[in-house]
Amino acid sequence: MFNGASNFSQGVDSVFLFTLVVSVFFLVLITGLMIYFVIKYNRKRNSKATNVHGNIGLEITWTVIPTILVLIMFYFGWIGYEEMVNPPGDALKVNVTAQMWKWTFKYANGKTTDSLYVPLNRPVVLTLHSIDVTHAFYVPKFRIKKDVYSNQTRTVWFKAEELGNFDIACAEYCGLNHSKMYSKVKVIPDKDFILWYNQSADSSMDTVNSSKDIEDK
Length: 217
Description:
A hairpin with a 4-residue loop joins strand 6 and strand 7. The protein is elongated and about 85 Å long. Helix 1 runs antiparallel to helix 2. By secondary structure, the chain is an alpha+beta fold. It is built from four helices and ten strands, in the order ααββββββββββαα. The chain is 37% helix and 27% strand. It folds into two domains: 9-84, Helix Hairpins (Orthogonal Bundle); 92-203, Cupredoxins -  blue copper proteins (Immunoglobulin-like).
């Protein structure tokens, strides 16, 4: 946690941490109480059982507190979800095709690649569709995941905040070579992305880097 590389990383990690802390707290509390009552009310100490007729205050407490905690989790989850499903209007648009067993990325200028090239600190919206079975577009480092279906188009967006190469995986079992359905998000400086984007459709980042090296010399 807390080592993500997109605009969603901090929000997702914070909600996850809050949920984890609450869960661990109640796990320890309930387990401790169970052990305490087992020891206190074992047969040796209480050979004759006694009836307990209830405690209204206690019942209200263990109903209200969990309800409040669940509503807090829902609130922060909903806020994060709303942001994830509303991409900015100026986002870079990329069409993503899923198939057994690879990802294909097509840009507005017709350039098609096997890896997703994106500029640093610029919103990118992906239009996802499958040409065969159900897949799931998942970038762990960006904290984004979206199921991809053959009968509908879906969208997901992000803003990369760290340079580098990040794994893209299929998170839905899609057949024999599902485990090999990996690709990369390659986050590069904005000026390098513009240079690459404006080159011919068969140009790779190696060409961009070579040109950049020549210019630097």
